[in-house]
Amino acid sequence: MESVKLLGSETVRLDRSLGRVLAEDIHSNRDQPPYDVSAMDGFAIRSADVAKVPAVLEVVEDIKAGGMPSWTVQAGQCARIMTGAPVPQGADAVIRVEDTHAVSDLRVRIDCSVKAGNDIRPRGESMRDGEVVLRRGTEITPGVIGMLAMVKRANVLVYRQPRVAILSTGDELEGLNEPFDAGKIPDSNSHALMAQVQALGIEPVLLGIARDDPDELRRYLQQGLQFDVLLVSGGTSVGVHDYVRPTLEALGVQMMFWRVAMKPGHPVAFGIAADACVFGLPGNPVSSMVCFEQFVLPALRGMMGNPRPYRRTIEATLGREVGHRPGRTEFIRVTLDRQECGYVAVSTGAQGSGMPSSMASADGLLVVPSGSDGVAANSKVTVQLLDGTAYQEEAGGEW
Ligand SMILES: Nc1nc2c(c(=O)[nH]1)N[C@H]1C(S)=C(S)[C@@H](COP(=O)(O)OP(=O)(O)OC[C@H]3O[C@@H](n4cnc5c(N)ncnc54)[C@H](O)[C@@H]3O)O[C@H]1N2
Ligand code: MOO
């Protein structure tokens, strides 16, 4: 995280800004609401008139949202008022229509007393003219979009997104659109990684498959280093054809780390060049995706200015024991079920790093500390979420 740079900023349209991070403070350009308004459909009254109830009041006018009152409410009078309409002069409270009873078109009986200020939203309650309503560094969520629209920002200054390239390596790989060859391994990593990047709102570029040939690999890596971030999968380990790291070094990349005490993903590598950073992700499909979650995702979010780069973790109860040999932090793919006691985490089954099904059905990654020698059922565990939704508790329906 220390090695990745915050990118510059750019102006984008509000309707293209979801998921980005504000690169400017946002100021309100008016008082909201612009005057004291009613919070309810009902009657604008003088609270002194309803100190004793029931009280019958004369209705002097109807005030709609978008209209303006034309009368001052005098003693014994009231105005019919809609939610969001300006409170008329003289009135100091609103009473909900449910707490009243129409006596005639022009007379209403009030059945309960209210204090001054009741159901009135004072001018500037939501925001005051000139005040900072959103700070630089705020992630743009749907709620933030609503506030930006409220201050009429059709365009906003946000941090730039990294340009991301994805490269797969290996003679054994067969591209998605290449002819079927039963002896080959389909290149799934390019596509799974692409989707992980897309889930952050970034559109990456697939460079394709580089064969295990130093010259070809060098050309591809050179191309990849033109991007802000290069993700290379395969060829990071210690096999004689694992050329990725030495070739990167020959191209001037400074390797910051290689091999992490984690499972899966042990051979992961990371390096920086003048204007790019490179992740060498292990070839096994689950390893590359788990390493993306641990390293690439926080880096990409950090580069986009997000002050909350990491995935959320939750505490869960382990449904079925898991074994572990001390030495590496292990990320076990689990499903999460919401039960009365909270979330229950259960392993998705065979956990080999070449078993993509373990990842496809996972809600999260159970984090087993490196020193653990196994976790018993019913233990409290930490689960890193892969997304933010859950099955419905005791679902009556299908969802
Ligand atoms: N002597 C050692 N051998 C290995 C070690 C080790 O520490 N010492 N580590 C193992 C671990 S752990 C992993 S993970 C793998 C990772 O190795 P590489 O990053 O060099 O990956 P490859 O050898 O190229 O491929 C591994 C595996 O994954 C398949 N693969 C590769 N790319 C793709 C792709 N784009 N889509 C789908 N599948 C892919 C590849 O066919 C291999 O089966 O090294 C261990 N070995
Ligand atoms: O770390 Mo490897 O990623 O176990 O397959």
UniProtKB/TrEMBL annotation:
<dbReference type="GO" id="GO:0061599">
    <property type="term" value="F:molybdopterin molybdotransferase activity"/>
</dbReference>
<dbReference type="Pfam" id="PF00994">
    <property type="entry name" value="MoCF_biosynth"/>
</dbReference>
<dbReference type="GO" id="GO:0006777">
    <property type="term" value="P:Mo-molybdopterin cofactor biosynthetic process"/>
</dbReference>
<comment type="function">
    <text>Catalyzes the insertion of molybdate into adenylated molybdopterin with the concomitant release of AMP.</text>
</comment>
<dbReference type="InterPro" id="IPR036425">
    <property type="entry name" value="MoaB/Mog-like_dom_sf"/>
</dbReference>
<feature type="domain" description="MoaB/Mog">
    <location>
        <begin position="165"/>
        <end position="302"/>
    </location>
</feature>
<keyword id="KW-0460">Magnesium</keyword>
<protein>
    <recommendedName>
        <fullName>Molybdopterin molybdenumtransferase</fullName>
        <ecNumber>2.10.1.1</ecNumber>
    </recommendedName>
</protein>
<dbReference type="InterPro" id="IPR036135">
    <property type="entry name" value="MoeA_linker/N_sf"/>
</dbReference>
<comment type="pathway">
    <text>Cofactor biosynthesis; molybdopterin biosynthesis.</text>
</comment>
<dbReference type="InterPro" id="IPR005110">
    <property type="entry name" value="MoeA_linker/N"/>
</dbReference>
<keyword id="KW-0479">Metal-binding</keyword>
<comment type="similarity">
    <text>Belongs to the MoeA family.</text>
</comment>
<keyword id="KW-0808">Transferase</keyword>
<dbReference type="InterPro" id="IPR005111">
    <property type="entry name" value="MoeA_C_domain_IV"/>
</dbReference>
<dbReference type="GO" id="GO:0005829">
    <property type="term" value="C:cytosol"/>
</dbReference>
<dbReference type="Pfam" id="PF03453">
    <property type="entry name" value="MoeA_N"/>
</dbReference>
<dbReference type="InterPro" id="IPR036688">
    <property type="entry name" value="MoeA_C_domain_IV_sf"/>
</dbReference>
<dbReference type="InterPro" id="IPR038987">
    <property type="entry name" value="MoeA-like"/>
</dbReference>
<dbReference type="Pfam" id="PF03454">
    <property type="entry name" value="MoeA_C"/>
</dbReference>
<keyword id="KW-0501">Molybdenum cofactor biosynthesis</keyword>
<keyword id="KW-0500">Molybdenum</keyword>
<dbReference type="GO" id="GO:0046872">
    <property type="term" value="F:metal ion binding"/>
</dbReference>
<dbReference type="InterPro" id="IPR001453">
    <property type="entry name" value="MoaB/Mog_dom"/>
</dbReference>
